[in-house]
């Protein structure tokens, strides 16, 4: 991924994290500041997301990245198996060996790409896990000098 796209991805990922999640609660009666009476109607009140909701959100994100990591791993495995098959076919079928070697190379490239994707998702999963631990207060970072 180019540095610009990577920065763009990180920017949007951080931007999503910094948005305070709010829940809208409706109230049927509200105080009317122009008079001393209460007026009927609906008003919106924003309520900040609780720590447990935030923890659950990060847990769900961690699970999502774990699933995508496994998909990347399966893609790498399948592409690797297909590359080996094409290598075998190139030896077995010398008349079409060039075609099989090209397909082998393509499958190998797909395998490397899938492996890279799995590696990326592994690190996204680790970040989500760390955020979940911090949201729940489970992990305290102590910086020891010695």
From TrEMBL:
It holds the Pfam family ABA_WDS. This is Abscisic stress ripening. Residues 13-22, 119-137 have a biased composition (Basic and acidic residues). Residues 1-12 have a biased composition (Basic residues). Belongs to the abscisic acid and water stress-induced protein family. Residues 1-25, 49-71, 119-146 are annotated as: Disordered. It comes from Musa balbisiana (Banana).
């Amino acid at each position: 991924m180019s540095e610009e796209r990577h920065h763009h991805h990180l920017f949007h990922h951080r931007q999503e994290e910094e948005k305070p999640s709010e829940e809208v609660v409706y109230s049927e009666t509200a105080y009317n500041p122009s008079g001393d009476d209460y007026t009927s109607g609906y008003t919106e009140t924003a309520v900040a997301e609780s720590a447990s909701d935030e923890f659950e959100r990060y847990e769900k994100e961690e699970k999502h990245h774990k699933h995508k990591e496994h998909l990347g791993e399966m893609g790498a495995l399948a592409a690797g198996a297909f590359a080996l098959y094409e290598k075998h076919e190139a030896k077995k079928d010398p008349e079409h060996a060039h075609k099989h070697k090209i397909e082998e190379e393509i499958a190998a490239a797909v395998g490397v790409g899938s492996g890279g994707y799995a590696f990326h998702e592994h690190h996204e999963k680790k970040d989500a896990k760390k955020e979940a631990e911090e949201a729940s207060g489970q992990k305290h970072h102590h910086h020891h000098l010695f």
